[in-house]
Structure formats: structure tokens, C-alpha cells
């Protein structure tokens, strides 16, 4: 039992092992403490050797947590019924109505717009000029689209 604890210790620090071997002077205790000290040395070497890997894992975990937070916001908004967007069906001859509808949606954006369109063209970029300056835009499209990086 430890002095200020009601339970027995299950692990020792490297210094604790050294102190224990000083108290227990049997040959077996000394051999075991040497093996434990060697294990600590190897553990430090492994940790030092894989520092970059550990940092990458931490970075990935941070990104996953951030993505989880973003997804949670999206799911919460969907569950609350937001955004309440009126859905219209556009037929032939109603191109202006569809154009106007998309422009209105872009104007309502407060922080970001995500556009997913395999056939994006310059007309979409022209529509984006209607959004607020502080609204970020992410465009997801196919490689075969008519728009090029220079257009953006």
C-alpha cells in the first residue's frame, strides 16, 4: 500500500523501479529491475523514433473531430428543418425562374456555399458574383467539366 492511497500500485515509474531495486537487494530483484529499466530505455527509443508518426495520428484525430463537429451541425440543421428551402420543379421555358431561384439561394448564404455539379460552367461563376464577399465557396465537379482552374 502507498502512504496516501487505499490501493496497491500496479505500475512504477523508471525512478520507482530504481528505488525498489535499492530496497530489494536480492539477485532476482536486481535482474528484474535491470530488465524493467531496459524496457523503459527501449520505450523511449521507440517513442523518439516514431514522433512524426504520432504527430500525424494526432493531426488526423484533430481533423476527424473537426469533421465530426461539422457533420453534427449539418445533421442538427437537417433535423430542425433548416434550411427551409422551397423546392420548385422547372420545366422547359422556365430557365429564368431557375436562374433567379439559384441567385436568391446564393444571396441567402451567410458563411459558405458548396456547389456539387458535374457540368459546371462559367455561368455558375457569374452567378457566384451575387454572393456576399465573406461567403466561402467550395466547388465539387468532375474532371471533364468545361471550367478550368484559370476560370476560377
Explain the layout of strands and helices.
Blueprint: H1 14-23, H2 27-49, H3 51-79, H4 95-108, E1 112-116, H5 122-128, E2 136-140
Parallel strand pairs: 1-2
Helix pairs in contact: 1-2
What this model shows, in words?
55% of the residues lie in helices and 7% in strands. By secondary structure, it is mostly helical. The protein has a two-stranded parallel sheet with strand order 1-2. Helix 5 (122-128) links the parallel strand 1 and strand 2. The longest helix is centred in the middle third of the chain and has 29 residues, at 51-79. The protein is elongated and about 95 Å long.
Keywords for this entry:
7% strand; 55% helix; mainly alpha
Number of helices: 5
The H/E string reads: HHHHEHE
Q: How many strands appear in the DSSP assignment? A: 2
Alpha-carbon distance between the two ends: 69 Å
Uncertain stretches: none
User: What Rg is obtained from the alpha carbons, in whole angstroms?
Assistant: 31 Å
Biggest sheet descriptor:
2 strands, parallel
Shape: elongated
**Overall pLDDT level:** 79
Report the portion of residues in β strands.
Answer: 5-15%
Strand order of the largest sheet: 1-2
SS-derived structural category: mainly alpha
The residue fraction in helices comes out at 40-55%
Amino acid at each position: 500500500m502507498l502512504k496516501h492511497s487505499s490501493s496497491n500500485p500496479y505500475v512504477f515509474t523508471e525512478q520507482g523501479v530504481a528505488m525498489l531495486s535499492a530496497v530489494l537487494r536480492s539477485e532476482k530483484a536486481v535482474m528484474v529491475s535491470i530488465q524493467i529499466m531496459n524496457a523503459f530505455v527501449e520505450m523511449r527509443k521507440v517513442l523518439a523514433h516514431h514522433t512524426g508518426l504520432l504527430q500525424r495520428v494526432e493531426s488526423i484525430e484533430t481533423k476527424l473531430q473537426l469533421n465530426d463537429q461539422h457533420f453534427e451541425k449539418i445533421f442538427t440543421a437537417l433535423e430542425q428543418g433548416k434550411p427551409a428551402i422551397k423546392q420548385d420543379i422547372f420545366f422547359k421555358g422556365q430557365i429564368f425562374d431557375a436562374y433567379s431561384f439559384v441567385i436568391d439561394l446564393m444571396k441567402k448564404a451567410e458563411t459558405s456555399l458548396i456547389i456539387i455539379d458535374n457540368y459546371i460552367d462559367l455561368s455558375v461563376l457569374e452567378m457566384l458574383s451575387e454572393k456576399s464577399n465573406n461567403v466561402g465557396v467550395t466547388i465539387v465537379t468532375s474532371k471533364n467539366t468545361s471550367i478550368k482552374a484559370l476560370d476560377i
